[in-house]
């Protein structure tokens, strides 16, 4: 559906000839065989876009790290089912809220880390302390807990209590991000290879080349189907796709529609939502009419159908289906270029400096066709009468604009963001992106903050309804964002592997769910 | 003693018409010159005609196949993922491409050659210092320089020119220095010294004209290199920024579509190839044509040219 | 005849990889107006260095140069430029000394680009170029041609025309005909002689070819390993060489008349390295008359009794032409 | 020779320090890496801790002195990204790049000499024109284009080669080397051809021919040596480019070389690793330049011998 394998073109024979010449010159032709990303019959080969910088478990909120570590090398106390959204027991067998601030966890017995140390309440307390309360500045702390410190206590070998300063209805969900590590792990610095309880352990890491995992012989649960797993990394999407097509890898992640995976491509909704964040404190973006105009010029339907090849859904909120707080009847901003122009003209008539240059900032390779998307938006904004300049940045540069403290004297800018709520609850999104002082929010109102806080304190259906109602309010009263689309991801999968990707696969690819097709 | 014969002496002035006739005798070089003229004219006037069409998006007609007139003649070379005319974009891109490549090459050519000639002519410590500076620039990762310059200043064409020019200066510096060091020991340079000619004047009168053809050959090769570097910067996301468009950017952006829409990167790539091949052909012709000792070769039919010299 | 050029005790040493090379070791010469000084010696004896020093292409370590009473090395700016105009050079290699990218006219006119005052406008210059071409025996229409379109002799004429462009008082000719065919050599030498008569210009004429020197020079200086070992009026030196080295050179030179040929003196060995010249008399290692004293003391200047302007530095000067024949 | 080497080593020291300092300052102009390495929630205190822990709070001059002091004791600092020693990372990546660069250059030089001489031997023959046109074309096509097309043709469609990686034995070298070799081969072929054409018409070669030296002998013994000097210059410059990172090819083929490491550390604001990489490549480029100069001297001596003989 995505693309035919290869189309012979007029340009190709010439190139083929040249390359052939070079080939003959170097005197090697080798029959297609096992070129080894590893493995053999009971091995699985996965190609990622980048090498994990580290496998430190408390950094597994980093996509590149988490996709390898989470639930493969290490495991949390409990995990969220990406389909149902329910929390399911893992290293904890049961849990309950024993007081408004305190949750008590019953831990699984007979589990040991791969270094032989037993997993018990002591170890769980150690891990949570290390990840959340220490000075390590772990990613998981920032992403999941903010600046909240937790009080952890090992009551007995299998009982653990965790107390938060304020009542926290979703504390177990938060704790599902803390991957348990052995008590022998350093508390003063991050480690490169974690010792966990998962179905796999690190066998061999040849930095720059490949990472091999082997199954954990002492694993407490079901033995996974593949004994060995090899990860390699290639930055170029078409090469990743080619590796699966060529039988050098079994699974390739983060592909674009045009990468040429052909029939091997599997698309799946991945929890990510794209949006433009408007720096609403900077003129002319401080005028709501301009922010509305930005919203009017984005033809979300057309983008989803053409540029995103029907793999994305137009969005009216920052979280997708399946997350607590999702509003199923999304209000999609209609495309109305004339209205946008009219709004800009009105603002100009009122003395708003609409001719100020507005920067449209994107991050290179953040999602497939981001440059094209940004070019479309720039073109439409220009037609509406705004002066918009595209700036594509590398990650570090773009993060300076995305995360507080924002750089000073930037002038007005529109920032392309992509948010993936890995946690399953809108609270994470709201705290970061909606609160007036949120780490990734440029602006808000006290009233909106109050509504957010109130919704977050609720539980159950009330929580869902209160949160879902916030999105329309944001669109109408705040208009900090122009939501664009709920995205999908594409992976290429060899027909020899049985695996069904889910919305969490991009962040947590469970090897135990994969098996050979027999 | 005072013979006054009326013979025209303005030899250099009478050379230009001669060059043109020489050029017309060489079909390949003429073709190359025509192609270059065409490219330059396109770069100058093309954008006036099709700037609007190059911007015009039509997502419903994205990645349309080339070689059909169904979408109008502008879509004859297909459309890009935003449904813009590849042909119109090629035309608009020619200006950006040349306005980056030509100044970058000229800047590095002028600066590198001047310093190189100066160092080679004077030799000694000046030469050593200059060569070590060339080493510094050469061993400095141009990519880092690009990232830094484009980070601190915005990635505009001017800054791109700056980065590319700086990284290419050592090439001319080394070439010019080597040749100039050799030339400064020649007898006709000594002769000029005996007239009391100043070093600068000698460099411009005797050194420059002789090494200019070599430098120009290097420059045409570099012209190609600069376009490719610009493309590589785009590959890494720090080149020309859309909605501006250059051939290099088109190739880089189109590469991901090589299997589904080969025309996106093929045509701009072809434009780069044709332009640089033409420049190279013309440069090697000019090298012969401006060298009085070699010019006679151009008056021979092409297939005989080489034979004569090896017999 | 007053001396236009006087050189006293000129010394020039080069730093080379393996030590110090004494290219000039106490050279003293003089040249009168309208006179030709022949400078003879084997290659590597320092002739060219001397020429380059006289043209201020090299700076001497010690010794003085007096040109018309002034030291050119002390000159700066305009005065230096004015001096440059008065001393010109004709090079050995008529190929390398002409820039092959310039036409004959441009080459001849080149000096005026530096000495701008000499001709006010391009028409005057063009006229003067034609004159000069005519003067050296080329056609005015040759101005548009490139050096490689000329024969070797014609090129050397171009070189001479260029040297004449500044109307110099002295032209230093560094082996001006050695690269030419014999028949052409004579033409060029005659041209030089004619020009000297017409223009009263002085020549320093460097050559390893004695017959050529005899043909053009009024006085001759013989160089060996950076030092003038014998000098005097041409006839005196050729008739009665005092230094065994001069005698050996003479015997090696081809003679025009069969009868003039004496026995050839074959010098033994190579020229010693100038890096490490022999002590005492520098010629002693190859001299058949050498005795112990030659190794210990520098040879004295011996005057020719028949010509007081003719002398040689030798412990055992040649007595007479007869002795030459006997040796 | 040893004197020359010593002098070059000494005169190269200052430029190396200049390169090091240049990278040091330039890298720090690309922004504070805190955002990349700290969680979004990082408090001002955590930011301060991070900055202090990495010595980024000192004045840039103090940082510079610390760094230079470290370099003198061969301590290049640790990577922000991986926590490993920066020097170890750079040294691990460098051989991969060197192997790639040397094999590329070897093929390019041999190929260019053969094709260039052959073309120059009969200038403007059909063979000459074809090889000239191909070499010009080859020199002007972007390498990533060749790489991606090559992967699809030779790995996917034909199945002859692995797409990428270094673990496939000899076969995995073919595509990266073939991609890299195209431009140097094209450029060098043109240089060799040009130099050979003029060398073959030089007087002493004509002399050798007139003395009855065989064609092959003339080419190999006389002309080629003379043509070697310009080829050496260009090959040196191309080699510098290869050592300084075949970034694009390394990125596409997942080749764990210094170019990839450099771009990753630039994008990751991993200053210590970047500095180690640059110093390593700079040193090798300086060594390369010295080798080239020695090559010139040798060539020069031989050419002179030939001419005078």
Automatic annotation (TrEMBL), chain B:
Subcellular location: Cell membrane
Any GO BP: transmembrane transport
Chief location: membrane
Sequence ranges assigned to domain ABC transmembrane type-1 in this UniProt record: 94-283
Keyword annotations of the record: Cell membrane, Membrane, Transmembrane, Transmembrane helix, Transport
PROSITE patterns with a match to the protein in the record: ABC_TM1
Cellular component aspect of the GO annotation: plasma membrane
Listed Pfam families: BPD_transp_1
Record-linked InterPro entries: BP-dependent_transpt_permease, MetI-like, MetI-like_sf
Transmembrane segments: 28-50, 100-121, 207-228, 261-286
Membrane topology type: Multi-pass membrane protein
Coiled-coil zones: none
Entry's family note: Belongs to the binding-protein-dependent transport system permease family.
Name assigned to this protein: ABC transporter permease
TrEMBL record, chain C:
Keyword Transport: yes
Region (Disordered) residue spans: 300-327
Alphabetical list of CDD domains matching this protein: ABC_NikE_OppD_transporters
Name of this chain's protein: Dipeptide ABC transporter ATP-binding protein
Biased composition (Basic and acidic residues): 305-319
Family per similarity comment: Belongs to the ABC transporter superfamily.
Keywords: ATP-binding, Nucleotide-binding, Transport
GO molecular function terms attached to this record: ATP binding; ATP hydrolysis activity
Domain ABC transporter span(s) in chain numbering: 5-250
Cross-referenced SUPFAM superfamilies: P-loop containing nucleoside triphosphate hydrolases
Alphabetical list of SMART domains matching this protein: AAA
GO BP: any one term: peptide transport
Automatic annotation (TrEMBL), chain D:
UniProt GO cellular component terms: plasma membrane
Keyword Cell membrane part of the UniProt annotation: yes
Keyword Iron-sulfur: no
Membrane-spanning parts: 12-31, 100-121, 133-161, 226-253, 273-299
Top-rank lineage group of the source organism: Bacteria
Cell compartments where the protein resides: Cell membrane
Family: Belongs to the binding-protein-dependent transport system permease family.
ABC transmembrane type-1 domain ranges (all copies): 94-292
Topological category with respect to the lipid bilayer: Multi-pass membrane protein
CDD domains with a match to the protein in the record: TM_PBP2 (cd06261)
Name of this chain's protein: ABC transporter permease
Key words of the record: Cell membrane, Membrane, Transmembrane, Transmembrane helix, Transport
Source organism of the structure: Kineosporia babensis
Gene Ontology molecular-function annotations: dipeptide transmembrane transporter activity
């Amino acid at each position: 559906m995505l693309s035919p394998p290869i189309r012979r073109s007029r340009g190709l024979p010439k190139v083929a000839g040249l390359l052939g010449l070079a080939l003959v010159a170097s005197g090697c032709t080798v029959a297609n065989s096992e070129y080894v990303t590893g493995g053999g019959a009971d091995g699985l080969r996965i190609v990622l876009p980048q090498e994990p910088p580290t496998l430190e478990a408390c950094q597994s909120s980093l996509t590149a790290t988490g996709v390898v570590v989470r639930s493969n090398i290490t495991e949390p106390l409990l995990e969220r089912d990406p389909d149902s959204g329910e929390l399911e027991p893992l290293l904890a067998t049961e849990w309950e809220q024993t007081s408004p601030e305190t949750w008590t966890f019953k831990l699984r017995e007979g589990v040991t880390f791969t270094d032989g140390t037993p997993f018990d309440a002591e170890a769980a307390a150690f891990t949570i302390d290390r990840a959340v309360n220490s000075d390590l500045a772990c990613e998981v702390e920032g992403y999941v807990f903010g600046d909240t410190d937790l009080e952890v206590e090992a009551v007995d070998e299998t009982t653990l209590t965790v107390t938060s300063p304020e009542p926290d209805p979703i504390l177990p969900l938060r704790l599902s991000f803390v991957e348990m590590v052995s008590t022998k792990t350093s508390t003063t610095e991050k480690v490169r290879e974690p010792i966990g309880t998962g179905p796999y352990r690190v066998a061999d890491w040849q930095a720059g080349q490949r990472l091999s995992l082997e199954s954990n012989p002492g694993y407490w649960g079901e033995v996974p189907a593949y004994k060995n797993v090899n990860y390699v990394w290639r930055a170029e999407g078409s090469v990743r796709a080619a590796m699966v097509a060529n039988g050098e890898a079994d699974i390739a992640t983060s592909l674009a529609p045009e990468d040429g995976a052909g029939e091997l491509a599997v698309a799946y909704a991945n929890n990510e939502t794209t949006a433009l964040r408007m720096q609403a404190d900077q003129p002319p973006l401080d005028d709501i009419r301009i922010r509305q105009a930005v919203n009017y010029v984005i033809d979300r339907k057309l983008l989803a159908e053409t540029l995103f090849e029907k793999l994305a859904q137009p969005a009216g909120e920052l979280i997708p289906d399946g997350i607590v707080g999702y509003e199923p009847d999304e209000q999609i901003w209609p495309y109305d270029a004339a209205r946008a122009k009219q709004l800009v003209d009105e603002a100009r008539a009122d003395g708003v400096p609409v001719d100020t240059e507005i920067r449209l900032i994107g991050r290179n390779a953040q999602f497939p066709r981001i440059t094209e998307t940004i070019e479309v938006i720039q073109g439409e904004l220009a037609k509406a009468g705004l002066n918009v300049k595209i700036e594509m940045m590398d990650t570090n540069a773009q993060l300076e604009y995305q995360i507080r403290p924002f750089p000073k004297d930037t002038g007005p800018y529109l920032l392309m963001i992509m948010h993936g709520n890995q946690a399953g609850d809108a609270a994470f999104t709201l705290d970061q992106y909606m609160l007036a002082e949120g780490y990734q929010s440029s602006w808000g109102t006290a009233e909106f903050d109050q509504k957010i806080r109130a919704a977050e304190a609720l539980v159950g259906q009330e929580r869902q309804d209160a949160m879902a109602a916030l999105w329309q309010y944001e669109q109408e009263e705040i208009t900090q964002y122009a939501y664009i689309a709920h995205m999908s991801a594409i992976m290429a999968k060899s027909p020899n592997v049985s695996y069904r990707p889910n919305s969490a696969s991009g962040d947590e690819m469970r090897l135990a769910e994969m098996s050979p097709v027999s | 003693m005072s013979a006054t014969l009326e013979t025209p002496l303005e030899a250099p002035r009478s050379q230009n018409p001669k060059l043109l006739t020489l050029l017309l005798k060489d079909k390949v070089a003429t073709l190359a010159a025509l192609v270059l003229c065409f490219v330059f004219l396109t770069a100058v006037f093309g954008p006036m005609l099709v700037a609007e069409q190059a911007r015009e998006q039509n997502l419903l007609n994205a990645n349309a196949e080339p070689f059909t007139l169904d979408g109008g003649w502008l879509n004859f070379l297909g459309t890009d993922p935003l449904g813009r005319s590849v042909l119109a974009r090629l035309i608009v891109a020619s200006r950006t491409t040349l306005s980056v490549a030509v100044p970058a090459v000229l800047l590095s050519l002028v600066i590198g050659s001047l310093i190189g000639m100066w160092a080679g002519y004077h030799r000694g410590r000046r030469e050593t210092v200059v060569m070590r500076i060339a080493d510094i620039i050469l061993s400095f990762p141009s990519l880092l320089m690009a990232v830094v310059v484009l980070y601190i200043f915005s990635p505009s064409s001017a800054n791109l020119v700056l980065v590319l020019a700086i990284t290419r200066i050592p090439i001319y510096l080394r070439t010019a220095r080597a040749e100039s060091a050799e030339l400064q020991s020649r007898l006709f340079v000594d002769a000029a010294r005996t007239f009391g000619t100043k070093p600068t004047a000698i460099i411009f009168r005797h050194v420059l004209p002789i090494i200019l053809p070599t430098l120009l050959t290097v420059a045409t090769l570099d012209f190609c290199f600069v376009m490719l570097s610009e493309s590589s910067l785009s590959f890494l996301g720090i080149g020309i920024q859309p909605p501006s468009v250059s051939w290099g950017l088109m190739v880089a952006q189109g590469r991901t579509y090589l299997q589904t829409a080969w025309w996106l990167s093929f045509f701009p790539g072809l434009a780069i190839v044709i332009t640089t091949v033409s420049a190279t052909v013309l440069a090697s012709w000019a090298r012969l044509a401006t060298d009085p000792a070699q010019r006679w070769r151009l008056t021979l039919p092409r297939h005989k040219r080489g034979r004569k010299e090896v017999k | 005849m007053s001396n236009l050029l006087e050189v006293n005790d000129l010394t020039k040493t080069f730093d080379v990889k393996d030590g110090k090379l004494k290219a000039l070791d106490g050279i003293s010469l003089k040249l009168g107006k309208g006179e030709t000084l022949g400078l003879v010696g084997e290659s590597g004896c320092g002739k060219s260095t001397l020429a380059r020093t006289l043209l201020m292409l090299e700076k001497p370590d010690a010794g003085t140069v007096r040109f018309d009473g002034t030291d050119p090395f002390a000159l700066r700016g305009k005065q230096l430029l004015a001096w440059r105009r008065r001393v010109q050079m004709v090079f050995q290699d008529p190929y390398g000394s002409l820039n092959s990218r310039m036409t004959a006219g441009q080459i001849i006119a080149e000096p005026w680009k530096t000495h701008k005052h000499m001709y006010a406008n391009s028409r005057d210059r063009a006229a003067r170029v034609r004159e000069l071409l005519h003067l050296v025996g080329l056609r005015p229409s040759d101005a548009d041609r490139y050096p490689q379109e000329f024969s070797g002799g014609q090129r050397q004429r171009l070189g001479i025309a260029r040297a004449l462009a500044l109307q110099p008082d002295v032209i230093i000719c560094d082996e001006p005909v050695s690269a030419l065919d014999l028949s052409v050599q004579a033409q060029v030498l005659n041209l030089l002689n004619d020009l000297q008569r017409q223009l009263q210009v002085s020549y320093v004429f460097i050559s390893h070819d004695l017959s050529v020197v005899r043909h053009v020079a009024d006085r001759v200086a013989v160089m060996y390993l950076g030092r003038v070992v014998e000098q005097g009026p041409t006839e005196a030196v050729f008739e009665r060489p005092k230094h065994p080295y001069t005698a050996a050179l003479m015997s090696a030179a081809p003679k025009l008349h069969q009868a003039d040929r004496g026995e050839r003196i074959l010098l033994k060995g190579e020229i010693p390295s100038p890096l490490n010249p022999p002590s005492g008399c520098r010629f002693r290692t190859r001299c058949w008359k050498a005795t112990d004293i030659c190794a210990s003391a520098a040879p004295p200047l011996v005057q020719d009794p028949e010509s007081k302007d003719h002398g040689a530095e030798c412990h055992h000067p040649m007595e007479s032409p007869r002795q030459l024949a006997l040796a | 020779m040893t004197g020359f080497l010593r002098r070059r080593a000494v005169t190269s020291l200052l430029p190396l320090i200049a390169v090091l300092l240049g990278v040091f300052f330039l890298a720090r102009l690309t922004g504070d890496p805190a955002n990349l390495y700290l969680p979004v929630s990082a408090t001002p205190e955590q930011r301060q801790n991070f900055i202090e822990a990495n010595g980024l709070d000192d004045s840039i001059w103090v940082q510079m002195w610390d760094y230079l002091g470290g370099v003198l004791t061969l301590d290049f600092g640790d990577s922000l990204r991986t926590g490993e020693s920066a020097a170890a990372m750079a040294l691990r990546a460098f051989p991969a790049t060197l192997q790639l660069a040397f094999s590329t250059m070897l093929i390019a030089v041999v190929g260019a000499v053969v094709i260039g001489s052959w073309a120059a031997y009969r200038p403007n023959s059909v063979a000459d024109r074809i090889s000239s046109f191909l070499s010009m074309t080859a020199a002007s096509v972007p390498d990533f284009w060749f790489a991606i097309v090559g992967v699809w043709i030779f790995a996917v469609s034909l199945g002859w080669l692995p797409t990428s990686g270094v673990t496939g034995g000899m076969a995995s070298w073919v595509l990266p080397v073939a991609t890299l070799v195209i431009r140097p081969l094209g450029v060098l072929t043109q240089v060799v051809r040009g130099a050979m054409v003029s060398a073959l018409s030089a007087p002493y070669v004509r002399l050798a021919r007139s003395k009855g030296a065989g064609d092959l002998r003339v080419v190999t013994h006389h002309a080629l040596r003379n043509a070697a000097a310009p080829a050496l210059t260009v090959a040196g410059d191309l080699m510098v480019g290869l050592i300084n990172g075949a970034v694009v090819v390394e990125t596409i083929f997942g080749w764990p070389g210094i170019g990839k490491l450099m771009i990753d550390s630039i994008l990751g604001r991993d200053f210590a690793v970047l500095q180690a990489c640059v110093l390593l490549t700079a040193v090798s480029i300086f060594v390369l330049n010295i080798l080239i100069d020695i090559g010139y001297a040798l060539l020069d001596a031989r050419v002179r011998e030939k001419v005078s003989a």
